[in-house]
Protein 1
Amino acid sequence: MKALASALFVLLLLTGGAEAQRPDRCDVPGYLLFGEHELGHVNMAVKDRQRLEIVIIGSGSSTLAGPEGKAYPRQMEAALKARLPDVTVNVTVHAAPRHTAADMVDELKKVVREQRPDLVIWQTGTVDAMRAVEPDEFGAILNRAVEKLRAAGTDVILMNMQYSPRTETMIAVGPYAENMRWVSQQRNVPLFDRLGIMRHWSDTGVFDLYSPTKAFAVAQKVHECIGRALASLIIDAAQLGPMTAKVAQ
Amino acid sequence: MNSVRQQLATAESAAVTEVRPAGAAEQKPPPRRLESVPPIPPSQRDLRLDLFRGLALWLIFLDHIPTNIVSWVTIRNYGFSDATEIFIFISGYTAAFVYGKSMRERGFLVSGARIFRRAWQIYVAHVFLFAIYLAEIAYVASSFENPLYAEEMGVVDFLKQPDVTIVQALLLKFRPVNMDVLPLYIVLLLLFPFALWLLLRRPTLAVALSVAVYAANWEFDWNLPAYPSGTWYFNPFAWQLLFVFGAWCALGGAQRLAGIMQSRITLALAIAYLVFAFLIAMTWNIPSLGPFVPDWLASLIYPIDKTNLDVLRFAHFLALSAIVVSFIPLDWPALRSPILRPAIWCGQHSLEIFCLGVFLAFAAHFAMSEISGGVPMQITVSILGVAIMIAAGGLLSWYKGIEGRNPGPRTKTPDADMAGGEV
């Protein structure tokens, strides 16, 4: 009974903290967004060359049907350009629907060889979870590939899956998200916890992600928020912002 | 030795007050047919098993509702192991308890056939749940077109090939989310006659073999194939360890361990380990604590593998059970109090209640999708679900009570009843 009471108390604290936020803005609490891992190459590229080459590689959830430029990669690019006005920011997107992490590895090699990006943002996990690829295998593939990217002098950010409440009983994302967190710690690269962030938005009522709506408005708004949060993570992890960057944007 | 005798004495007194008449007929020590059989453990039912299996079933239900704030009370958030370990261990224990007696009295063939019949019942239950799952998926597929989730909706593509999907499901290769436990249970039961045969003759050898298979699995990565890709979520080669260990405990192993389990050193170690696991688990719940786990420790313990029953999980389960055994005696009066009766009812009809729980979790998710996914709804469906499970458990116990009172073939009823409803 005591344990239950204290658990409820912790819950109250957690939910109380969330309620205190204004629900009209898609803020992300710092603990969900920022970590200890740094983006050294991005820092150098910006400070020494004022140029930033970013490659986003991912599956279908890095794109959005409808008008061009509404998906998070372009939103992130816009946010970065606004916050780093003196820097030339180039973002290329290689998003292929239904690609697993293993499918992306070859493409990744090619892209890195040809484009020499400063930063690779690797969005993955969803398709592997849908196909029920062995989670260990998924983690091992990711781990090896990230190790090679780091050795080749590229910074990496891992991005996990979307929070999709309606398909939760059909896609077991948990083990894949855990593996991505593990690789992020092993290889010392930031993890953009899209799953946790979107769940936070859903829990605090910022977005109704259960909605079966066919409209694009909510999807576009979610991508815009993801793009902005991702830009904040890059600026924080590359130590490019003022120290107040630790307050979530 | 003293404690064993005490346990036996309390066991007998407990047996006298046992309310179920079907069980009362079974209190005479069964005849010993096999010369090499170890001392026969108390033959009355350990209500602690029913209690904790009932609690485990509730926790499994709560954990199966995606995005459920109430699942913060479940043990998986406070340590390495979760309710699955409890469920599989107790299932092994009760299986050995029921079929061990049957194998001593009636021999390998008869008890083996009974175990297979049980596996068949579980298979049928699994297929029934799969049918319900298909209905839910088909509904979601036809009603959900949010462009944000265009990729995720690809998961219902398998509905385009019902022939393949259904056959793969019948082969236990295609298993939807949260429907992995029963296939594991089926495989464990199919192998159980042989394990039990050995457990009755050479218990130490049987456990050693089980540990050997578990350890060899680290090296050889055995697992059963799944569809469309990958392997079983609960690897039977690893999880058999808990099942066999549970069976071994039921067949006298628990008495052999009693000395170790009751020592202060064990208790201290168990508490220390649980505290350690709790602290690590806190870093999952509160990500900002993550950096406090030193890198060497993180690379030592992660990933904590559920599929292959990570040693850390197994140890966590052992520590939990050591504490339970030392603080809750077999004759704990509360076990007969009305407060705990609902959990005991559920634990005594575990297959039915487990299946009901899986169904209720689907239904809860459906209600959350259709009405609201908010916190009040999460709390409502959780409470309602557990209440339905309790009501069903009570109803099944009542049924069993009236069945037991029927005059019938005495030698058959209790065993078949237990085998049919409680393993």
Protein 2
Amino acid sequence: MATIGQACLLIALGLCVYGAGASIHGGRTGQEAWIVSGRRALFAVAGVVVVAFILLESAFLRSDFHYTVVATHSSTTTPWYYRLAAMWSSQEGSLLLWLTLLSVWSSVALLVIGRRMRDVVPYATAVLLGFGAFFSALLIFTAQPFTRVAVAASEGIGLNPLLRHPSMMIHPVMLYSGYTLFTVPFAFAIGALIVRRVDSEWIRATRFYTLGAWLALSIGVLLGARWSYAELGWGGYWAWDPVENASLLPWLTGTAFLHSAMVQEKRGMLKVWNASLVLATGVLCIIGTFLVRSGILDSIHAFVQEGNTIAWAFTSLICVLIGTSVYLVVSRRGDALKSEASLDSALSREAMFLANNVVLVAIAFVVFWGTFFPLISEAVTGTKSAVGPPWFDRYIVPLALLLVLLTGIGPVISWRRSTLARLWLQLRGPVVVAAVVTVLALALTQAADNLKAVALFAAAAFSISIAVQELWRGTRARQAMTGSGPGRAFVTLIARNRRRYGGYLVHIGIAVMFVGVAASTAFQHSQDVRLRPGQSATVGGYTFLYAKPTARIGQRAGELERIELGSVIRVTRGRRYVTTLRPNRGYYPINAPAIGALTRYFEGESTSEIGLKAGAARDLWIAQRTDITSFTPIIKKGDRLFAKAAQAGLPARTQSLLLGQALRGLVARYVAEAPGAQFRILVSPMVFWLWIGAVLLVLGGLIAAWPTGGGLSGRARARVSARVARDVRAPATP
Amino acid sequence: MTLIIVIALVAIVALFVTHPLRRGVAARANLETEVRTADLSTAKEDKYREIRDAEMDRRTGKLSDADWRVLDRQLRAEAVEILHDLDELQPPADA
């Protein structure tokens, strides 16, 4: 099977090289046969890569430790669903996942686009196959996922315990789907620039993939945030960590592109900007993959093997992509990318979209600078220094505030031009709502201590009320046009304008998320405290009592999977009982018997299972860091005894039974003696709304991305067409 | 056995990919006209959508009646221009 898998990758590389050459030759000479052959090469790449993917996944499912990648990233005690996901926790599997998603999404795109854009398609195909060639070459010459050993290990090392979380099964797939889907508009932008056909057709043809990429990336980023909150034990959902930032960067430029693309579709403007944005997004997707897999920056999410050798390859690819993109945009600036219209007024929707784009790109620049600052500082001063969350907050908060305001104003201003009086008519209601929210926040909460948070609440209220007002007015307009009831008018309004109203729902989602972020960061109460059983700490008005310790040996498939040392925490507010939380620390054994028969159960990875009581008003969150130093002498003594027993030739089965007894004894002793433990306690208001906003954002994205067939609905088209047809016969009259 | 599977895989892929070359698909005719027609059709769809959206903007209060009349006339004139350009590209009906 390994040979077949390896052969599939070799065939894929050959197909990519051949297909790219055939496509370019067909594009240059106009010979359809070569173009079709190039396209078929891409479909064939998808076929063989999917076969390779399935072969490697089946090796993980079977726990076939002949495969090095399986032995080092999975084990027989890993549940089957995590075994499937274990593949992309490895360098090899993650690159294979990238290639699989790239080839599948590219094939779908070419199939759907069909005979449209026949001059652009050959070059876009070549670009997509170029990416395919890069990743298949990496897999063949560097990562080598099908490497086998003659004698299989009896047990694998297992999946990194931090990754044993449901969202981690989907998060990487979503992120990579986002990255690979963004290569489709990237490739078509390159193709359109090559043939100098940079009208809105390439944007229309790839819109679905751009929206799909944005949606997948959104889900990926949000799942990552949720995983951070629930699994990492530091108490937050976003740490401005390089790997988190790497996924945010293409999301920001992609979001900007989704807005400015509408200006090009409507007015034929911003062609240079749009081409630059989509090319930058494509490059940032590769940089994102590079950051995660290379480990060049320290990250809480770095799951990188030592001796990484892919850095040079990614750096070369990024240089080629940037060089080609800059050359194409600069060389086409004077003709193909010339704007078909100019900005009529600063009070127009296109001007608002442009402003929104500038803010989004400014945020992306801040994130990029902060992320790569360690490398920049090392290059300049020789010392690697990083910037922390306060640095990001200083720049991001005001920009985010401006973004939320622009998000609100954009939808209520008309295309081409408007007037201040007309704009005020649209804005006065939302301005009143924002003012009321500000007054209520100042009067009823402690918000006066944090004016940045108050400003974000007001901006979010403004943005949400505008979106709601738009839905209300749109429904009424539709009722007036069709004579239908409000329910039907509302549904058809959204169904006929999915991109617009899906987008408004996304705006609402983002505003709600901002409320959650602002409240949970500005008004959070946190405390790191050391407690013994019976002791308590009061945080944010809640009393956390360490009621008793807990300990458990977790088993899977008859094998010890982990040792959980935890606690029961009783939470009260005044005399009122609120909840009981059960945080624990899970210790996973390391597969290195030489360090000691008992020690190995405490020296491997450890994870923090948090205690969480989530609510609409606030989350009560607690993580435990168990202190087992007082047990070290006993553990070391046990190590020595088992070493002697092994030397004396005690049968393995007896040793195993004794080891089980020793571990059970240790666990019982932990409960009886209950040494103190370190706790991190957080009382965070309104975190819940961050996740509600995230759900709204995804829902809005789904509505916007849902295929509509492209043009206007039949009736609307006929009506507009009839009016224009009258003008063909006679001069235009109002 | 493995070798046979690999050879079969290579053969299937090679046959699939080179099929258009062996069949000898003809060169693309009138690509320039086709591309221009596609461009104009896209522009027409965009313009129609712009006309519809301007109407919606008027109904939802973003445009006054007077502003809408000016804009609508301008958009329809642009649409007519595109339709004329499209007509010029299409062969006469009796040809």
